[in-house]
Amino acid sequence: MKHIVFLTGAGMSAESGISTFRDSGGLWEKYDVMEVASIEGWRKNPDLMIKFYNERRAQLDKVAPNDGHKLIAQLENGFKVTVITQNVDNLHERAGSSSVIHLHGELTKVCNESKSEIYDIGTRAVEIGEKASDGSRIRPFIVWFGEAVPLMEKAANIVSNADIIVIIGTSMQVYPAAGLIHYAKRDAKIFLIDPSDVSIPFTSVNVIKQKASDGMRILTEKLIQLP
Ligand code: OAD
To answer: Are 103 and 84 spatial neighbours (Cβ–Cβ below 8 Å)?
Structure first.
């Protein structure tokens, strides 16, 4: 069975109504990225970050997986499929994908300051000043700028074993996630689905210049025809 690895970013969930970060009108035009998505921001103003992530978490109840998420899940009928996502939403899981790695954490989880205890909280709000069992402040289980990405090694290993790699909806600007593609096998087939031009350092990429859902429809047809 061929192994397909999807590398997905914010554009994957755009058609579900979740804003991307760097597009015009994206989240980083409305918020200062360092205030709400960096470890320095947490040290300076944790209350602001609790509110920011409470809003993002609450949004999960109002959105649903789009056809792109669903088509990825459906590919499990003929392929081994692993999703490695930079997204912190749970739309891949809700669409039915069974193997999802969240490089940048998960909105439905929180943890203590040292990240040694992780709690599943679904979509409820964290209270300002809420404490973990070790007395430290509860924080969102999100990998912020300035923090290590603990799942990188696992993700790199998975990419290095993939027969097919599909990049969807990421501007490929945030490292180390954007560097994962360098672990691809020499003969891996690489597809890129994005309505905008995204530069990646490979010449043999099959670009499908479409939104995630239309792009996944086209890709599914192509995959079915592969030998
Ligand atoms: P970006 O906002 O940087 O890039 C979104 C990409 O999605 C762009 O290439 C868009 O062209 C594309 N896009 C927009 N609409 C789309 C659609 N309907 N279908 C498919 N693609 C579409 O988001 P990421 O690359 O995911 O990290 O950002 C990476 C990281 O930066 C995030 O995980 C987040 C952010 O700061 C943290 O907060 C730690």
So the answer is: yes
